[in-house]
Amino acid sequence: MRVEILSLLFLSLWLQSTKADPGTSAPPNIILIMADDMGWSDIGSFGGEIATPNLDRLASEGKRFTQFYNNGKCTTTRASLLTGLYPRNGGKGIELLTDNMVTLGEALKDAGYATGLSGKWHNGSKAPHRPFDRGFQSSYGLWDGCCNFFDPSMQDPPFKGSRVRFFGQNDQRITDFPENYFTTEAFTDHAVATIRRHVENGTPFFHYIAHTAPHYPLHATPEDIAKFEGRYAAGWDELRKARYERQVEMGLIDPDKFPNPGPNPNNRSWESIPEEERAWEARRMEVYAAMVYRMDAEVGRVLDLLDGLKAAENTLVIFLSDNGACPEEPGGRLTDQLFGPSEFYGHVGPDWAYAQNTPLRLYKSTSHEGGIATPLLARWPNAIEAGTSTDAVGHIIDFMPTFLELAGGAYPLSRKGLPIIQEEGVSLASVLKSENTEFERPAPLFWHWAGSRAIREGDWKLVWEKGGEKGWELYQLGADRTETVNRAEGQRGLVQRMAKKWEAWATLTGIKY
User: Fold this and answer.
1) Of the residues 74, 146, 147, 326, which is catalytic?
2) Short-list 127, 118, 123, CA closest to 103
3) 158-169 confidence digits (pLDDT tens)
4) Contacts for 489-497: CB closer than 8 Å, 24+ residues apart
5) Are 428 and 394 in contact (CB under 8 A)?
């Protein structure tokens, strides 16, 4: 009897000694925050002059990824982020989410997580493609691509009077919005209420906050705009120069590996702008900066909530942008628009967008670095060393395997009786925790959008910009991240091998090219 008691005592002590601290072993809560059309250098930790103290806090208390990628376009990025898969069928509409795919909402719910979405969905507004059809138990926001920030029920003038589809929980369409409404704040209101409920219930949760800021239309409150009045009177050329110098000074970039590519051939110099238009141009950037500032303040509300609920230590918070800065000008330059108020509709245009992506080439909808590179910040106090940085190459397709590994979940082989396309990303859990400082991707990365295409394998990147006038261009990103020296002529064999891999991938994913 005594031997049995001693054996039980030793077994109990052994189990206690081997049991991990629940503060560090419990699956983390996960909050994924995404900006819309924000440039690589717009936030402070990536060299921006816009005040972003809360995002800077994520950087100082977490890890900065300097080589992280999206898909260069709103819809395709969102589809890949949700599924861990490259876009299928050429990236057309609701075909981006199909029955043979599983979403983060579905996979993490299966792993025991509560799930929620606040903000922009842009992957279908009819069954079975809505958020609540695809695993998100609580959802609120915009099922379309963009909307009026003050009154989402208003029509979008450049898009032939199309009306926005804005929904609350399940299929409750919202058409009336109160005074002083602003989407960036409203998305956060829903996120805060939902996260609070999950924490109080003691349930691990995944919450996806997809802001529309700073996507056009350029809308901000007078108070926020006032903070940036006069800040951009020197123009976009000086802004890009100042950001580049700041990035070098803070050690974000090595000028030998990030050669300054100079002015974009498609852009105008600030000096070429007529004097009478310069104030109007500067106003565009002032309002844009105000939108980034307000989004940062709303991120701060989420961080404060986690602190107040004592949930910050075991919550992974990730912030990124869906593509590079946006050069689009639907409806034209619209010089009669006074940016900021709800009754006007405007955008920053290609000249400011190029500066917002400092020091990278081009912008949204292209496969050069300015289109597909995103600033990414990750904070998880229980596991991520504060103030660290990594140049590990990551991609939004990596979120699915990363989150499932952290959650203790499993990627399904089938769902509802149908075989599921298997994961195409890789887990970055070991990179987050600094357990793998020599991380190398086991397979190339691929891109395609409207004729623009690219493949990255190791440090080599092959890119074909839309139109195909130049054909394939080859860059060695380890020495030339800004893509200034095309090495295709001297590396014809490499070009052919990489091009064949891209073509095989295009066939696999249903791209017609």
Assistant:
1) 74
2) 123
3) 776 566 788 887
4) 494/460, 495/462
5) yes
Known catalytic residue: 448?
Answer: no
Q: For this structure, is 74 an active site residue? A: yes
Q: Judge if 375 and 483 occupy the same domain.
A: no
The answer to whether residue 128 sits within a structural domain is: yes
What would the pLDDT profile of 177-232 be if each residue is shown by its tens digit? 999 999 999 999 999 999 999 999 999 999 999 999 999 999 999 999 999 999 99
Which of 409, 426, 441 is the last residue before a domain boundary? Answer: 441
- For 22-25, the CB contacts below 8 A with 24+ separation are 23/313, 23/314, 23/382, 24/314, 24/382, 24/383
Residue 139 pairs in a beta bridge with 117
Verify that 33 and 142 share a domain, yes or no. yes
| Structure token pair of residue 359 | 């020091």
Per DSSP, the three-state class of 209 is strand
CA angle, corner 436, sides to 43 and 255, nearest 5?
45
Q: How many CA atoms lie within 13 A of 57 on its CB side?
A: 14
pTM: 0.93
pLDDT band at 12 (very low <50, low <70, confident <90, very high): very low
Chain centroid to Cα 207, Å, comes to 14
Catalytic member of 122, 190, 347, 448 = 122
